[in-house]
Amino acid sequence: MTRRGSSLCPERDFAVPTTYRGGCHCGAVRYRVDVDLSKPVLQCNCSICSRTGALLSFVPANAFTLEEGEDSLTDYQFGKKNIHHLFCKVCGVRSFARGQGPSGPMAAINTRCLEDLDATTLQVQHFDGKSR
Ligand SMILES: [Zn+2]
Fold this sequence. Notes:
It contains one helix and ten strands. By secondary structure, it is mainly β. The strands form two sheets. A seven-stranded mixed β-sheet has the order 6-7-8-9-4-3-10, with no helix packed on it. The protein has a three-stranded antiparallel β-sheet with strand order 1-2-5, with no helix packed on it. The protein is globular. The site of zinc ion has 9 residues, from loops.
């Protein structure tokens, strides 16, 4: 991936993503992700997000690395089946999802599952997934 601009440019209008680690509760699922959390995270009102309470941030698939736990994931799909809602079969935590975005494969990160981050301090944007 090539980064636009230069870190010397004071007027850049994009934030450089930060690397976070995250995963499920029991530790079976572990990942690393480059994500820009200066952008608001999405609180979606669709049938699954309203039940799980995820605060989502979307990243290109190549910004996400699953380090452990592929075997511990259960894939849940519903509706149009565009999105793989992956949850840990041990502890049940849905720490991320995979799907196709407008510009290619995406990962949806549940920012509540990132380490060293208090997701309640993030800017939240409400997303009307229910009517889509
Ligand atoms: Zn787990």
